[in-house]
Amino acid sequence: MQAVILAAGEGKRVRPLTWSRPKAMIPVANRPIIEYVIDALVKNGIRDIIVVVGYRKEQVIRFLNQLDIPIEVVVQDKQLGTAHALQQAKGKIKGDFLLLPGDNYIDPQSITRVKEMHNAILVKEHPNPSNFGVVLLKDGMVESIVEKPEHSPSFMVSTGIYSLTRDFFSFINGNDITDAISCMLEEKQSLQPVIADDWQDAIYPWNLLKMNHRLLAGLLSTREGCVSRNTIIKGTVKIGKGTTIGPNTVITGPAVIGNNCIIGPNCCILPDTSIGSRVKIEPFTYIGNALVMDDTTIGSHSRIMDTVIGERCTFADHSSTNVATGILEIEGCLIKSEFGAIIGDNVKSGPFALYSNCIIGNNVTIEGNSMVRARIVADNSTVI
Q1: Do 193 and 261 fall into the same domain?
Q2: So what's the pLDDT on residue 175?
Q3: Which residue range forms the structural domain that includes residue 132?
Q4: What are phi and psi of 61, to 5 degrees?
Q5: 211 located within any domain
Q6: Is the Cβ–Cβ distance between 86 and 99 less than 8 Å?
């Protein structure tokens, strides 16, 4: 069986983290999201995989070339929609196929349940269904899919994962997969719902913290770096090659630390923390429920909680992020949010800066003693 993974989109609602990478390449638990999708397919014996790339395609192609299995790549030159992306792979598809988004986590067991079916969709109940395509059922079959309704008639949503026959292409008249599915249902073709066991999507950047929590649950403990005898490690912790953990540091898993990092001494790393490669965390810093990407430095005596930090950021000493609830405007919609901070790439923050329920864009400079609360700071800004 073949599988088509759509990884051409940017993920605008996850900005600023998709400024320098497509959403499918955001690292969660130190692995790009698309890698989990490919793993789920391979564990089901599916190795004939096509990936549709587009936005910042070079990053995806470079990553795919490093994998142990050959991946066929096709390019969507203009990001016109999911159905348009699928059309780019039409010439490569020989028969029945799976269609999957490259920026969602799906477990192998769910793939097992849907792969042998003809015209089926993986569905899952979600507490915020209006962010997705809402699936309406009748007599145990899909009756319709309503895309992002303001008032949802159901909590059952589409995961965007389908098992389809090649005949599906005859129903594509526009650029969106949901429209093609609607056309298919209008032609009295059946579509069977299959409940997914475990599916994770990050609609907004703070949703990555929940996805990180879920994916760290499957972590295996390994210690390849240099750990001080006075370091205390509890739970499942993965430490990469070349990493140094200083004395009197306490790490409580699940947590993952990448390669060539310098942690401590006298640091505290709490559960649900992912730290990328070449990260420096200076002494007396406290960090938990956080996702820190490559080449970032966090100064001494800092407290980083419920936060996502992009690449190549520098936080001076006594930086602090505090979780709070607020309302933020994302893509023209007012969204209730609860987190510490979302930090883009190349951010420079001065000492004694405080962040709470805020999104900081890329290439931003925050001067010392600043307090940033319940707001979005645009790319290339300076906060004084």
Answers
A1: no
A2: 81
A3: 2-203
A4: -65, -45
A5: no
A6: yes
